[in-house]
Design a protein that fits this description.
Blueprint: H1 3-11, H2 14-17, H3 26-44, H4 47-57, H5 63-70, H6 82-86, H7 92-100, H8 105-113, H9 116-125, H10 129-137, H11 148-165, H12 167-173, H13 177-188, H14 192-196, E1 201-206, H15 213-225, E2 230-237, H16 240-252, E3 260-262, E4 276-281, H17 293-303, H18 320-330, E5 331-341, H19 344-347, H20 354-364, E6 368-373, E7 387-392, E8 402-407, E9 413-419, E10 422-425, H21 428-439, E11 447-451, E12 456-463, E13 468-470, H22 474-477, H23 479-482, H24 492-502, H25 511-521, H26 529-538, E14 540-542, E15 564-569, H27 574-583, E16 590-591, E17 605-608, H28 625-647
Parallel strand pairs: 1-2, 1-4, 2-3, 4-5, 6-8
Antiparallel strand pairs: 5-7, 6-7, 8-11, 9-10, 12-15, 12-16, 12-17, 13-14
Helix pairs in contact: 1-11, 3-11, 3-16, 4-5, 7-9, 8-16, 11-12, 11-16, 13-15, 13-21, 24-25, 25-26
Length: about 650
């Protein structure tokens, strides 16, 4: 039976729900009933053995004994089945609730998340419960009739249909299939062991699991390539309903459901000691992580680089980098990670900022293998440009020190029908083209291989000397009246009068001389040194003809109003750059060596950014002036013709 046919058989119950339920709510009923019927089929083979234990020990029999009798983690102590329940319509609601409660705790949780009991009562109130149960009872979901893989695909087909009916849910919890396929292939094509050697066991983890599509796709891809390979799947999801689907999908496909946890990955890591071979993740784009701030800061302070967030913290408005750092912390020494992001992690933040320090950590430790730009309008809840980052703990020798950029933004086709913001999709050929470019480390119009250090720069602070003249001229004295330190003083008029009389309006180019005059003129007021300095600064005007101002130790003072910065590429010598780019324009400038990098101690602050589009920009010369003139004349003539046709 094909996945679509099985999905259609299950979907047939939607006809029963039409009119009594909104289309967007169909999944909240059909999915938990599909799970219940599948588990009923799974229990069928060992039902007699489990019932024998219940008959002897009661419904509170030892879980270990029941697990042994069931030959697995799925069993039911209610001694009910869909067939039996359909034959007892008078007690159907109570029996269904008892049936769902007869599973072990890790399975009962799925029904609790779906609020299964409420759905049962709602169907009963609408007179639909018996018809729904009979429909599912008519479907043979026994593992001998429908394999775990077939059932998993049918379940995913249902999830996809419900996602299309409810675009809000789809956008938050459902990653487009072609994006998942691309990420899985990018991760696994570099691993010959998992794709070829028999008996291989690898661990895969998704910290933002949604409905489990990424882990399911990884499992499908590896199984198709190597039926003897096994994946141990682990995940965590915050949203209750998505978590229930996620866990049920893993259960239906024969994976350990206890590996799927519910909770906030950033504040409550449910797999604290887990290390894996692969991480796949599509965290929420641009989501404020303020609610997790206290927990994140506490962990960073306590553990530093031994914890998840040692390299740095992004600004509070976008937590994408936190999920990336979390995923990296789970990788073993040869592990690989694929994560979807928006454009922010590429370039947000200046040198020394949290984002820049995280990029610095990734690049200096040679963790970025490739970044792929996806087409716009690919996701259900946003049309923005998105990127897939491929990270690796152990890059191939030919990739070491390099980062591959792949521009897949034009590898796209229009969808026949838009789904929310999703208007575009990548075909199988488009995905294959990206995987090919990645595998071959292409240098082409869609792929560039760049030295990782090329993304680094050093922001140096450039100072120029203070060159001022000073005078107690009337227009300068007026500045004291608007200065916060002085404007509220009752004796301000007397201060201004003293300066006008004893200092005068004649410009003085020596700051030391002028400051001495100020001190004599205002001696009666006993101003603090900082206040005298503020008065001198207020009575100064820039004068390029003046000599540089010096302090008491004869050191040239910088003019902070002229202070500037320069970003020097890390691959270039700072002094050579400074001579060429700065001193040729401002010969009196110097590098402020008091501003240094916290890590290397050298002047300036090291930063990293990845200007992705710059590597794929192609200059297009504007049309010639004659061509532009001809176009204007042609358009003008067309407008005049249209006007003539209108007015006659």
């Amino acid at each position: 039976m094909t996945n679509n046919r099985m999905g259609n058989l299950i979907w047939g119950v939607a006809e029963l729900l039409r009119g009594d339920f909104k289309q967007a709510d169909y999944g909240k009923i059909i999915l938990p009933f599909t799970i219940a019927r599948r588990l009923d089929g799974v229990c069928e083979e060992r039902r007699a053995d489990v019932d024998a234990i219940i008959a002897a020990e009661g419904e509170n029999a030892s879980p270990e004994l029941l697990r042994y009798a069931a030959k697995g983690p799925v069993y039911n102590t209610s001694r009910l089945s869909f067939e039996k329940m359909a034959q007892d319509p008078e007690n159907l609601s109570a029996n269904l609730i008892r049936f769902a409660g007869g599973f072990p705790e890790h399975v009962r949780e799925i029904f609790q998340r779906y609020r299964f009991n409420e759905k049962v009562e709602d169907l009963a109130d609408k007179g639909l419960l018996l018809a729904v149960v009979k429909h599912f009872a008519s479907l043979d979901f026994n593992p001998q009739a429908v394999s775990n893989e077939e059932m998993g695909h049918a379940f995913e087909e249902l999830i996809r249909r419900f996602s299309e009916l409810s675009n809000e849910t789809a956008g938050e919890h459902y990653t487009p299939r072609e994006v998942v396929t691309l990420m899985v292939q990018l991760l696994f094509t570099e691993d010959d062991d998992v794709l070829s050697q028999p008996g291989t066991i690898k661990k895969v983890y998704d910290p933002t699991g949604g409905t489990g599509a990424m882990l399911s796709s990884a499992d499908d891809y590896v199984t198709a390539a190597n039926p003897d390979a096994k994946l141990a799947l682990f995940g965590q999801e915050l949203n209750d309903e998505s978590y229930a689907i996620f866990k049920a999908d893993m259960l239906i496909k024969g994976h350990n459901p206890e590996h799927i946890k519910q909770g906030n990955t950033l504040t409550d890591d449910k797999h604290p000691s887990l290390t894996v071979d692969y991480v796949l993740s599509n965290p929420p784009f641009g989501v404020d992580w303020g609610k997790a701030q206290d927990a994140v800061l506490k962990e960073r302070k306590a553990k530093g680089h031994a914890g998840r967030f040692g390299p740095g913290l992004p600004r509070k408005s976008d937590g994408t980098f936190l999920f990336m750092l979390h995923g990296l912390s789970k990788l073993n020494d040869t592990g690989r990670m694929g994560i979807v992001t928006n454009g922010s992690p590429l370039f947000t933040g200046n040198a020394g900022s949290g984002e820049s320090e995280i990029r610095r950590h990734l690049i200096e430790n040679d963790l970025i293998e490739a970044i792929i730009a996806l087409p716009t309008d690919m996701f259900y809840n946003t049309g923005i440009q998105t990127y897939v980052w491929v990270l690796s703990r152990q890059k191939a020798p030919e990739r070491q020190g390099k980062i591959q950029l792949i521009d897949a933004s034009k590898l796209v086709e229009k969808m026949p029908k838009s789904l929310g913001s999703k208007r575009n999709r990548m075909s199988a050929d488009h995905v294959a083209r990206v995987v090919q470019a990645h595998g071959n480390m292409e240098e082409s119009d869609i792929s560039k291989v760049v030295d990782g250090r090329a993304f680094g720069y050093r922001t140096i602070t450039v100072d120029r000397p203070m060159r001022h003249n000073y005078a107690a001229a009337p227009e300068r004295l007026e500045r004291l009246r608007s200065e916060k330190k002085f404007r509220l003083r009752d004796d301000l008029d007397a201060i201004i009068a003293a300066l006008r009389e004893k200092v005068g309006a004649e410009p003085i180019q020596s700051r030391a001389t002028f400051q001495g005059k100020i001190q004599l003129a205002l001696g009666a007021w006993q101003f603090k040194a900082t206040e005298l300095k503020a008065i001198v600064d207020l009575l100064a005007d820039r004068d390029e003809t003046a000599e540089p101002t010096r302090d008491n130790k004869k050191r040239v003072l910088p003019d902070t109003d002229l202070r500037d910065t320069e970003d020097v590429p890390l691959l270039e010598d700072v002094q050579s750059y400074f001579q060429r780019e700065v001193l040729t324009q401002t010969p009196d400038a110097w590098i402020n060596e008091d501003v240094t990098d916290e890590k290397d101690g050298l002047p300036g602050k090291v930063g990293f950014e990845i200007p992705f589009n710059r590597y794929f920009y192609t200059y297009e010369a504007p049309p010639a002036l004659d061509e532009i003139d001809a176009r204007i004349k042609a358009r003008s003539a067309r407008i005049m013709q249209m006007l003539t046709e209108v007015v006659g």
